[in-house]
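Consortium newsletter contribution from the modelling node. Members have asked for a concrete example of what our holo predictions look like. Here is one, prepared for the NAP complex that several groups have been discussing at recent meetings.
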Amino acid sequence: MHRYEARPDLLKDRVILVTGAGDGIGRAAALTFARHGATVLLLGRTTSKLEAVYDEIEAAGGAQPAILPVNLESSAYKDYQEVANAVENEFGRLDGLLHNAAILGMRSPLDHYDPDTWMKVMHVNVNAAFMLTKALIPMLRASEDASVIFTSSSVGRKGRAYWGAYAVSKFATEGLMQVMADEMDDPNYHVRVNSVNPGATRTNMRAKAYPAENPNNNAAPEAIMPVYLYLMGPDSVGVNGQAFDAQPKPAS
Ligand SMILES: NC(=O)c1ccc[n+]([C@@H]2O[C@H](COP(=O)([O-])OP(=O)(O)OC[C@H]3O[C@@H](n4cnc5c(N)ncnc54)[C@H](OP(=O)(O)O)[C@@H]3O)[C@@H](O)[C@H]2O)c1
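And here is the predicted structure:
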């Protein structure tokens, strides 16, 4: 999967929503999906960053994207219903959903962990993803071939000291993925649901988590796109409920 080579028109005619599309891995995914033919819906909180991605897609000759300004920290379920209505009215379909946006919170032992930060991390990383998913499920079910990708982390598969709410939120993300995948395991639907652990990737979040490391030792977001393309496109039909790594595991 790490060497998957996507054909140029892999995602032609597909409408794909990416959360946190303005920066880091989400930005790379939005640009990559657009380059492979998708109409990309750019959801995020910093409109200027989303506009820059929008302009880059247009300049490259991609299908006209759309910007969905949503702050996952402060939005309520009715806001996600409005997002779903806007997508339905404007595009009439949804074939892909990449849950990518997340926050790190603090790196701290549990006895020092600030409860308000805990709530915020769980809200952005888990509750918001649930609400957006719930609002979009009818459109995903209506698609002839839909793919949902949740973004996990190594600390969402094995807990590690001082990763606090972030680690717990990623375990919950894996749980949400598994529950949804099981519900979609039905011949009437054509929705596959999987998770991806990006692995160490050169972004602002990684720099915040590991301020002392040399970022150049980490993969660029563009370098981890093969797994995302494989899962978003039709070559992964039938792959459901699985946890993927975007990078090969280092030899131990
Ligand atoms: N980088 C890594 O090494 C690594 C490793 C394992 C897992 N991950 C996971 O990969 C995903 C992407 O991470 P990244 O490294 O690309 O992080 P990043 O550079 O910090 O980007 C995160 C994106 O999420 C958006 N976001 C954060 N809070 C939001 C909110 N309240 N409402 C809307 N959007 C919000 C950010 O918007 P702004 O641009 O406005 O801040 C940004 O576009 C995350 O799920 C992360 O947990 C990353």
